[in-house]
Amino acid sequence: MNVIETKNLTKKFERLVAVNRLNLKIEEGEIFGLLGPNGAGKTTTLSMLATLIPPTEGSARVNGFDVKSEASQVRHSIGFVFQDPSSDDMLTGRENLYLHALMYGVDMRQINKKMDEVLRLVDLTSRQHERMKRYSGGMRRRLELARGLLHEPKVLFLDEPTLGLDPQTREHLWGYIKKLSTEKRITIIITTHYMEEADKLCNRLAIIDHGKVVALDTPANLKKVLGGDVVRLKIAKPNIAAIKKLKYVKKIKQMDRFLVLTVNDAGKHLQEMLMRVGEVKSVESHSPTLNDVFLHYTGSEIRSEEGEGGYFARFMHSGNR
Ligand SMILES: Nc1ncnc2c1ncn2[C@@H]1O[C@H](COP(=O)(O)OP(=O)(O)OP(=O)(O)O)[C@@H](O)[C@H]1O
Ligand SMILES: [Mg+2]
């Protein structure tokens, strides 16, 4: 059964088309990832599915309910953890959970047990009675996640849930998110800029850019699309004509100050290749990662809102390779 189905789902903000005729089908129990550059339309998509903003055109069903005409049923069957935390700083962690449980009509006899359970899951039992203003960024994210789970939603929307978390906490949350999907059959829609996270967690991924799906498949299949190893070269004066003649080089792309080649069996050809391409200052070769897939589909140009260095620099520093 499709837990989420969108038909030409569209959101316009005046002249800007943030989400452009999106068609998605997501099955029960999937962990489905939305990847895309800043401003691609990920949060807007989740906001429409969670009934926080209405679509301009098209439609969407969540758990069988229509987001426009059955918004309240949709809301009761979903949980979400959004980019901007919405908990109250003056309340303790536990009080925030309690408020949320009341708002969502969690059975009064169950509230305490549920709160204990979700606090334990996100390792906040010992800090639950402190005011949230004393929480660190990571603790806030964890409490937000606990809050999203309190009323046992069938679908959980996670908008960059591990942003700013330390690697250990992030891995911990991955394990937990996986468990939610396998044991409780909760369907999870997650956005992230961490490619490793998408790779490890998601059954399927949609890469979106300018509000449109540009690729959709399992992480393994998406990586196959590149059709070879990735060789990244820094060359003073690249001899493009010579590179084009090499049969095992399937694609050549200029990205920033680098040449990025897709190469058949790079291990075998690397040495010969390096002698022909120009004065090589640095070289790096690897099997395709989701980073490469992402760059392949979303292009290499630096978006105006990205500032200096852009995606490429960010990925180089992300340690995801
Ligand atoms: N309330 C709004 N009014 C006007 N424009 C908006 C509004 N919300 C979003 N937008 C615009 O819609 C586009 C998509 O934004 P959205 O927040 O969905 O991107 P995103 O993919 O979540 O990006 P990020 O990775 O930075 O979180 C952007 O150009 C953004 O500026
Ligand atoms: Mg966003």
Walk me through this protein's architecture.
With 321 residues, this protein is of the alpha/beta class. The protein folds into two domains: 2-218, Rossmann fold (3-Layer(aba) Sandwich); 223-318, Alpha-Beta Plaits. Helix content is 36%, strand content 27%. The chain contains twelve helices and 15 strands. It has helices at 42-49, 71-76, 93-103, 111-121, 137-149, 167-183, 195-201, 219-225, 240-245, 266-276, 290-298, 310-318; strands at 2-13, 16-22, 25-27, 31-35, 57-62, 65-66, 78-81, 155-159, 187-191, 204-209, 212-217, 229-235, 249-255, 258-263, 280-286. The protein has a six-stranded mixed beta sheet with strand order 7-8-9-4-10-11, with helices on both faces. Strands 1, 2, 3, 5 and 6 form a five-stranded antiparallel beta sheet that branches. α3 crosses α4 (111-121) and α4 packs across α5 (137-149). The longest helix is centred in the middle third of the chain and has 17 residues, at 167-183. The radius of gyration is 22 Å and the shape is elongated. The two termini are 35 Å apart. The model is unreliable at 300-321 (pLDDT under 50). It binds adenosine-5'-triphosphate and magnesium ion.
